[in-house]
Amino acid sequence: MEIAEKIADLRRQINYHSDKYYNQDAPEITDYEFDMMMNELKRLEREHPELVTKDSPTQKVGGSAKRTAGVLVRHNVPMLSLQDVFSKEEVYEFVRQMQEQLDHPEFVVEYKIDGLSMVLRYENGELALAETRGDGINYGEDVTANAKVIQDVKKKLKSAPEYLEIRGEVYMTNEAFDQVNERQELLGKKTFANPRNCAAGTLRQLNTAVTKERQLSLFIFNIQQVRGMELATHAQGYEYLKEQGIAVIDNYRVCTTADEVWNAVSEIGENRGNLPYDIDGAVIKINRYADRERLGATSKVPRWAIAYKYPPEEKEAELLEIELSVGRTGRITPTAIFTPVRLCGTSVSRATLHNQDFIDELDVGIGDTIVVYKSGEIIPKIKRVVKEKRRSTWERFQIPQVCPVCGAKTEREKDTADIKCTSPNCPAQLERRIINFVGREAMDIKGFGTVYIEELVRRGYIKDIADIYHLWEHREELIELGIIGKEKNTDKLLAVIEKSKENDAGRLLTGFGIPNVGKAAAKAIMKEFQTIDKLAGASVEELTAVHDIGEVSAMCIRSYFEQPENQTMIARLKEAGVNMQAKAEETLESALSGKTVVVTGTLPSLGRKEAAELIEKYGGKVSGSVSKKTDYVLAGEAAGSKLAKAKELEIPVLTEEEFLRMIQD
Fold first, then answer.
1. How distant, in Å, are the alpha carbons of 32, 39, 373 from that of 85?
2. Bridge-partner residues for 220, per DSSP?
3. Which of the residues 6, 66, 88, 112 is marked catalytic?
4. Average pLDDT value for residue range 187-203
5. Residues 25-51, buried b or exposed e (16+ Cβ, 10 A)?
6. How far, in Å, CA of 289 to CA of 404, rounded?
7. Is 112 tagged catalytic?
8. Distance from CA of residue 511 to its chain's centroid?
9. Are 337 and 280 in contact (CB under 8 A)?
10. Can you give the pLDDT at residue 382?
11. What pTM did the predictor assign?
12. Secondary structure letter of residue 272 according to DSSP
């Protein structure tokens, strides 16, 4: 790849991941992986200054201003980011440069809290405004209402100058975060991935009661602007703020030499696992304000401060057991259960071991000491085994040759790493098949929870999918036993089951759980064959003629409909009155007719779902990945790798405006 293309590709990826982190509070990669991409871009731009552009991520502060929690407000002082460094040598080099440019400079070393930046403005001691970082240069969001319910935010100062603007980090303690996720679980809502995402989302939402309930915290780390009093140093500013009852960064150090600075950075790193909140580095900044004024800033970062980033957090744990679960296809999945460790703000004690090949490659057995980390700061994974701590009685773990649920023989599927239970009557498989069938992507039988399914399977009321539509026959027993609840709840669920008989046959096909046949594939198949009966009689050749249905998927479909137990089950579904016909959809002719379109990035006005519905309505097909078969890519902001792939394959890229014009014409 040529240098210009490599730089362009890095910029696209960085813009995409920057949007996910700053604007959507939903990062897909770790801070470390993001920093490495940014460093590579900086290196290439240093070597090729002629390729630097004004809109490069290296020339901008991350994020954009949104109108989620309030109106946009203009920054009085830019809320710049910090220059990141990753080695001892870079820290010493920063100290050396400062000592060359300044007369006996002092350095303050402090925690870099992992949260969301916020500025507070005080006029004559009264809190006048709170704003987020936004785009960092021009605008942020007004979050004053939410800020006022944060306990650490002082609404009135005891001894205040005419004007004071201070900047801090809104964060969530580990204890508060755990309490929020406990509440989310009790309410049946999605839990947050980490404290930073939770804090950012909470500060930006509209309900101040929710903000107050979630117990956000705030540390102040800088005085941005002051009128009406004189402060000479950062440390002096901290002492003044503490006198006002304002929370400032804990345990900051004032240093004068490179060795003192590095020792302070190292101590913070060693202690970060013991803190009640998450930090993602240490900040090294010049103490005297006059020195800061003299050094100034670039368009992106101040020249008087850097942030040292620690390597991704890893912790050792003891592997206590390996739990085996059986999926709806019979696949056995091993999960490591280990002593709980805290990573990226959450306590973790489980991580998937995938399959026997992964276990063999890792060379792991029960009792081993393992190193655990979080991929993308979200998903717990096992990095390696600490073999020096291995016991003398060690044995590598082997998935047994019998199913852990029903005791039937297991076998390894040809040309895969999967080991499967061979019994079609395995209760674990049945439970998961039913869970898939009633799920939102399939028949969408709302209120049919996992607990009900497990109990109905255990008591023998459900032996296959068709039994769901015969539960009404056992209404009195179900009410008497209270499996679903009393009369009201039981009748409510039975009514939803009855209503689901009218669903489109594409949902029914999705609910069958045939390997390699998801919602999109099922929709395409039923559009072609129209009825389940016609599909059941289709040959492999006829199936592969359907767009995006390959030979493997076709063989799975053929195999499913050839199995006698499935034929019997489908016959019983028909008898129960379940719809077997694809519903006719209005499709309008347009330039998209028969074309495959990939949607990527954030569109100006259309959501992803809206765009997909329009594509299908006007005769097109939506795909999730870019390939040679793709006809168009509909791209918005932060389009990322899919846009890069489209350009590499020379696939036409549409803006939202071009897309809408195309279907209207």
1. 11, 9, 22
2. 168, 248
3. 112
4. 81
5. bebebbbebbbebbeebbebbeeeeee
6. 67
7. yes
8. 26
9. no
10. 92
11. 0.55
12. G
